[in-house]
Design goal:
By secondary structure, the chain is an alpha/beta fold. It contains 21 helices and 19 strands. Strands 12-13-14-15-16-17-18-19 form an eight-stranded mixed β-barrel, surrounded by five helices. It has a seven-stranded antiparallel β-sheet with strand order 2-1-4-3-7-6-5, with helices on both faces. β16, α18 and β17 form a beta-alpha-beta unit.
């Protein structure tokens, strides 16, 4: 047993044998049945007693922690929130579990607490390791002003909560808020007061949310929160009005709220997740006053009614491959020879390819679309094998598709048996979907590269997640976000950023492609700062046929691997990637 420490001295268990446990030993055993660390705070919220896995969870030994103010040990993202929760804890009341991190800790913990009715000066805390799909400290889209989850992480969290509530048979609710005239309120306040308002707003929503970190900022004035019981909302609404009124006494402190019951539905898990994804997106995109989805069933009915025809039409298009392809060249900035093409999908003249792809991701049929495009490009390469044996074409794959085991198995099966074709069929990973397990994604990508495919990471530099990708995922090419290219001639800052990204990729032995290259001046500048290839109207617009001039890629092999001895040598179908299993 780990002995507790109080005032620097280990405490000893006395008065009982293991066969007849004392009350002291019994309570300790019960506590550690559900917790990894136990902490007592004195009236100044300094640690007076601690036992358990303190060093692993908090980063210091129990002896080192004695006398330290507890909130000073908490990570900066959680400090204001947990300080507010501790200050508001009433005697005889239990503190709802909060997920927090520590400055020196190696993991997140779920923290609960209690104040004894006859000893209101002390707080007793119990912490256990948090098991969560989202690490609150490293969520890529956490809002800087409020400390809340960003829209993507919030949506992912809500989907996880639906699964957890369904498994446990528990109740839960999602409330979506729109605070009226928040932008005007921010303008009326000075910078310090506005910053404090947003920080307090984030603390308030988190303090009422399920697990202490189930609230998010969805847009400038729209927020979401998941909590255990619908009765919670009344207390939170009063606190929210009080907070806004305190910041702006002359204002109206108005906000609109819409609540969806997460537990009371008869849908299967997939339907429930689709309905909530639709509801959150619809709330963000429309005026809250017009938002009338009050249940998951309503959400799925509205989703079905609004999108059934469009889904069916897109499925027919995918299954019949009745879309077309356009090919845009990627050329060497050194000698202007074309090294490969990107395949761009085209639908009916009145339908945006981007909107169709986003829709396919939202309704869960992006895997079918990605497979259909890959198959069409594969067939095109096969037909061009005799006349253009060195032609290489890159197919865009959603990161969401690459997270699917069934998609990967089908992709490998489609391209089995022809190593030469796999070497000419490239894949470009798009970043419209935030990958939550980069280690698994790297395993998947390395499996595809081992099969002979070249891999490219799209839109590098377009968001903070790009650097997580390049740190964790090894690819052959990186395509630099075209926003910097468009501004680089008039803005040296953008040129410096491009050079820094090019240097980083060069150090990682990754070749770079610049998007949106439209002028000779841009192309020359990009070449000078070390970027290898360019894509844009300067080299060619998307067209029905690939550009004629192809650079023979004799020195450009994706990996050192054995080739078949002769053209007649068998090329056995590869097994499905072992990495394509959920960790």
């Amino acid at each position: 047993m780990i002995l507790p420490v109080r005032d620097g001295t280990p405490m000893q268990a006395t008065g009982s044998s293991p066969a007849q446990p004392s009350e002291w030993r019994r309570y300790v055993a019960f506590s550690f049945a559900t917790s990894d660390v136990l902490i007592e705070l004195d009236a100044a919220q300094q640690i007076a007693f601690i036992t358990g896995a303190a060093e692993e969870l908090i980063g210091m030994t129990p002896a080192q922690l004695l006398g330290k103010r507890f909130v000073d040990l908490v990570s900066s993202a959680d400090r204001a929130h947990i300080a507010d929760v501790l200050a508001s804890l009433q005697p005889g009341r239990r503190m709802q579990q909060r997920t927090i991190g520590f400055v020196l800790g190696r993991t997140m913990i779920r923290l609960s607490g209690f104040k004894l009715p006859d000893d209101p000066q002390r707080i007793y805390l119990a912490g256990s390791r948090a098991i969560s799909t989202i690490d609150p400290r490293t969520a890529a889209t956490r809002d800087e002003q409020t400390g809340l989850l960003g829209r993507d992480d919030f949506s992912a969290m809500v989907e996880d909560q639906i699964r957890l509530l369904g498994t446990a048979g528990q109740a839960g609710a999602l409330t979506l808020l729109q605070i009226e005239d928040l932008e005007g309120l921010q303008k009326r306040l000075d910078g310090r007061k506005a910053s404090r308002l947003y920080a307090e707003l984030g603390t308030l929503l988190r303090s009422y949310s399920r697990g202490g970190d189930s609230a998010g900022r969805l847009s400038e004035d729209k927020y979401g929160i998941v909590y255990d019981h619908t009765e919670v909302m009344a207390g939170m609404a009063a606190k929210l009005r009080e907070l806004i009124k305190r910041a702006d006494p002359a204002g109206d402190a108005r906000f609109l709220e819409r609540t969806i019951d997460l537990g009371d539905h008869t849908l299967n898990e997939r339907e429930a997740v689709q309905a909530i994804r639709y509801a959150v997106n619809r709330f963000v995109e429309t005026d809250a006053a017009k938002f009338d989805i009050a249940s998951i069933e309503t959400g799925i009915e509205r989703l079905a009614g609004e999108t059934a025809g469009r889904i069916e039409q897109l499925k027919r298009t995918i299954n019949s491959q009745s879309f077309s392809l356009a090919f845009q060249p990627i050329a060497s900035l050194a000698d202007r020879t074309v090294v490969h093409h990107e395949a761009l999908i085209r639908f009916r003249k009145d339908e945006s390819p981007y909107e169709a792809i986003v829709f396919a991701e939202e309704v869960g049929i992006i895997e079918d679309l990605d497979l259909a495009v890959a198959r069409k490009v594969r067939d095109f390469l096969w037909n061009e094998s005799l006349t253009s044996p060195d032609l290489r074409i890159a197919v865009n794959l959603s990161a969401r598709s690459l997270e699917s085991d069934s998609f990967l198995e089908q992709l490998c099966e489609d391209n089995a048996g022809d190593a030469d074709l796999r070497a000419r069929l490239m894949f470009e990973v798009t970043e419209s979907y935030k990958v939550r397990n980069l280690e698994r994604m790297d395993n998947v990508i390395q499996s595809l590269r081992a099969d002979g495919h070249l891999l490219c990471l799209d839109d590098f530099g377009g968001g903070g997640a790009s650097f997580d990708y390049i740190q964790n995922v090894q690819v052959d090419y990186v395509k630099l976000d075209g926003t910097y290219v468009r501004r680089m001639i008039k803005n040296d800052r953008d040129a410096h950023i491009l050079k820094a990204m090019a240097d980083l990729c060069a150090n990682l032995s990754v070749e770079t492609i610049a998007e949106f290259v439209e002028t000779e001046e841009q192309a020359d500048r990009l070449r000078v700062i070390g970027i290898h290839y360019g894509q844009g109207y300067l080299f060619g617009r998307p067209s029905e046929e690939p550009a004629a001039q192809i650079l023979r890629p004799a020195s450009r092999a994706p990996l050192a691997r054995a080739r078949p001895a002769t053209a007649a040598s068998p090329d056995p179908a590869p097994a499905a990637p072992s990495a394509a299993t959920n960790n």
